[in-house]
Amino acid sequence: MPGRVMGKRRGDGVIDTYVVFDVDTAFPGRYLIDDHGEVVADPVWFYFGPVTAAITALLKLSPHGSEHAPKHPLSGAPAQFQFPPFSRVEHSN
Questions:
Q1: Rounded-to-integer distance, Cα 42 and Cα 73, Å
Q2: What does the alpha-carbon distance between residue 40 and residue 23 come to, in Å, rounded to a whole number?
Q3: In whole angstroms, how far apart are CA 10 and each of 7, 37, 56?
Q4: Quick check: helix, strand or coil at residue 55?
Q5: According to a count of CB atoms within 10 Å of the terminal CB, is the N or C end of the chain lower?
């Protein structure tokens, strides 16, 4: 199995993630967090491409809740964009 790097960043009501398999294969996405702390499986945004372009695109997303931020889950997203196995989000006070 090839190596991979995974990361996540929790914001107010969303979680941004990325999975990197190699220099040319990265999958970032943004997912909503529901009122119970569960992540909605379908992303509101996703990207596929080289690491540099993928991370740049993720970092350029508008903040959640702003006018230009993605808001609606994209049903029917490819399987690799279904939320990763760390789907329970810990609440921090």
A1: 5
A2: 28
A3: 10, 11, 17
A4: helix
A5: C
CB 64 within 8 A of CB 12: yes
CA distance 44 to 38: 15
Which tokens belong to 37? Answer: 């702390």
Give the integer Cα–Cα distance in Å for 51 and 34. Answer: 29
Looking at residue 91, its pLDDT comes to: 44
pLDDT in tens, 16-57: 988 888 899 898 999 999 888 888 888 899 999 999 999 999
Whole-number Å distance between alpha carbons of 40 and 53: 25
